[in-house]
Design brief:
20 helices
Length: 437
């Protein structure tokens, strides 16, 4: 344990800290997390339109509600790239200390993103000119990485121009909103010129567009790299080790995975609607499955403590953490018990999520448990309810089984801690009795 601690403190934790403190990582993380409301609302409408009861589907068609329920996902989940590029740029402006320009930068990023998208044309009979319209295939999850790269480029160029003071100057007394509007002119002109040239350059290649190039050369390979069981196990191990040594493991790996998971939503939802196998198993819900009760899958630990604790120390702790645990909040447990740097809890804390992952993967592969869709739900969503929203009663039941597995893995280690605490309390009580006598 001492040698591992020395290695983590010297080699691993400094790198993880730099990653989590990186301003671009923070911007992407905050931007993607801001999408939660849009994604949840779109998912609810989508699920309501996908309930596989024939009478219910007939009712939706006859009343026209089917169109309503399909429209909301089309303008939320299916257009996620549009919201990503704005929100990441908006959050980046805040992170880099330019809150006053956040909306301006967000809008320029959005327009730049649209400038990269090829237009479709149709020639109606008798019309003088062709009608051009936006190819919506590029504004959804296919454009997730393009949205990130666009936001980063726009923010960098925009802030560079502001730093060099290459802006239109207005006389004193002009309202701030007018000043901001004219401040935007030169950066917007330069940035949109650059992105128009990028669009033109890619139109001369076999990729046709920058979005196609980024999707094929970057997004697809990263999806393939992170979409396997060994890769997912490694990521979870990294997160758990960081947590154990006092670094927020989720904040380190989630900003890297969030854009990938967002790109999974459209194909997963399409497969769910069609009654087909979910193509991307290792999505955000697979991660949430391993954090039932919080990082380390500690809901089982909390339940074991609440039922079996004999020492006063852990009885009081159990009463404190039992309710937050059901809503996947375990910071009081990690920092208050503590789990951090607790050698007795190292094995269950690090490896319980891995056990749940491997067993869940096997059950999903053989068809006993449904693969979760991978919807972005609030982290505090309780089990069973979140399982149903992820499209499967069998997955909701598996969440309960995962908690029972957590109870079993944590139980022997907790009994060691509780017995030790009970001995210390008895020794303390005897010493106090001797003093009183």
């Amino acid at each position: 344990m001492h040698s591992m601690q020395a290695f983590m403190e010297k080699k691993f934790i400094p790198v993880a800290t730099k990653i989590s403190n990186n301003k671009w990582v923070q911007s992407i993380s905050r931007g993607t997390m801001s999408l939660m409301g849009v994604i949840v609302v779109g998912a609810i409408f989508s699920l309501l339109g996908s309930i596989g009861i024939p009478a219910y589907q007939t009712f939706l068609k006859n009343t026209g509600l089917a169109n309503l329920l399909s429209y909301v996902p089309a303008v939320t989940i299916n257009a996620i790239g549009l919201y990503m590029v704005f929100l990441i740029a908006y959050q980046a402006a805040h992170v880099f200390g330019h809150e006053d320009l956040a909306v301006n930068i967000g809008i320029v990023s959005l327009v730049s993103f649209l400038a990269l998208i090829p237009l479709k044309s149709t020639q109606e009979k008798g019309a003088m000119q062709a009608i051009n319209y936006l190819n919506v295939d590029y504004i959804g999850s296919r454009g997730a990485f393009t949205a990130i790269i666009t936001a980063m480029l726009v923010v960098s160029i925009y802030l560079y121009i502001i730093k060099k003071n290459w802006t239109i100057k207005m006389p004193e007394g002009v309202p701030p909103q007018v000043i901001n509007a004219f401040t935007d002119v030169i950066p917007a002109f330069v940035i949109l010129t650059i992105f128009s040239l990028i669009r033109w350059a890619f139109s001369l290649t076999s990729y046709i567009s920058a979005t196609d190039f980024i999707y094929k050369m970057l997004q697809k390979p990263i999806e393939a790299l992170t979409g396997s069981l060994p890769a997912f196990i490694i990521l979870i191990l990294i997160a758990q080790l960081l947590w154990f040594f006092g670094i927020h493991g989720s904040f380190t790996i989630l900003p890297i995975l969030m854009p990938i998971w967002i790109s999974y939503i459209n194909p997963n939802m399409a497969a769910y609607h069609a009654g087909k196998v979910i193509p991307h198993m290792f999505n955000i819900e697979m991660y949430n499955m391993l954090t039932i009760g919080g990082s380390g899958a500690t809901l089982g630990f909390v339940i074991v403590m609440f039922i079996f604790a004999k020492s006063q120390q852990y009885k009081k702790m159990a009463r404190l953490v039992i309710v937050p645990g059901f809503f996947n909040i375990n910071e009081p447990l990690i920092f208050g018990l503590p789990i951090i740097m607790n050698p007795i809890l190292f094995i269950p804390f690090v490896f319980t999520p891995i056990i749940i992952l491997i067993l869940g993967y096997i059950l999903m592969k053989i068809g006993l448990v449904g693969v979760p869709i991978g919807l972005f739900l609030p982290a505090s969503t309780p089990i069973v309810f979140s399982g149903i929203l992820q499209g499967s009663w069998s997955y909701a039941i598996w969440q309960v089984v995962a908690v029972l597995i957590s109870c079993v893995t944590y139980y022997p280690f907790f009994k060691i801690m509780d017995a030790k605490a009970l001995e210390e309390e008895k020794a303390g009580a005897e010493k106090l009795e001797q003093v009183e006598n």
